[in-house]
Design a protein that fits this description.
With about 280 residues, the chain is of the alpha+beta class. About 30% of the residues lie in helices and about 35% in strands.
Amino acid sequence: MVKWSRALIAFAVIFLTVISCEAAKKTVAVMPLENVSGYTEQRVAEIMTEQLIAAINGSGNYVVVERVQMGTVLKEQGFQSIAAGKSVDTGEMSGADYSVVGKVIMADVSDTAANSLAKKLFGKDGHTILMHSHRGRVSLNFRFVDNKTGEIIFDATVEGDKTGKSVDGVIHDACKDAANNALKEINNHNPFTARIIKISGDLFYIDAGLDSGLRNGENLLIMREDAPIESNGKIVVTHTKIGDAKITEVNGDYSVCRVKKSTGVIRAGDVVKRGQ
């Protein structure tokens, strides 16, 4: 009986830890993307949406609103697709902190140069002797929106470019490539920042933890504030990268990090943000 009690307690601790970690992460609603590329041979917008959801959710930095939940919200709102101006209301209804809204502005499948040459030399079936005969390209324009304020945190255009044997395959892979590039943009513009509050050898403490959605093993960039610059009557503060670190321990409101490399002495007050 004692063994069972201990096992149940241990399970409860693990379960609650997992739940608290998931709850601490920021939530993202990926709105159904539009296809304005003119490419009609495949459901390219749907594939791009699926790959974007997979990339963002797979990063571990965010929790993506389930598609079933998003479908219910969209049905209640009466939307088939989401314009940028509607992303905030719809995102809030889904319970998300941020929304991703965008359009596939270019999609194309063409023969590779080698495939074209093979067709000229061997006829219409010449491409079958090649391992890679098609090239798929996709371009996605998207906005990352703060649902609470309505602010567009950033607007970016990313591309995907892959070669392969089949038309369907290269479009799918190109969408996956573009989604991974979109994730890099999101991480680069991630609103998370924290300050170093204590240094101990190659370890340092920062004033952010689970409450900011951080996780163990995550990579961080160490930044130092440059001298303020005045631009058009406003004070602009820029940062210079001085090192890389990895989180080794995450707590509710602080984390411990280990320096991987640095170009100078790291000081309390320096800034950290997410990085690759």
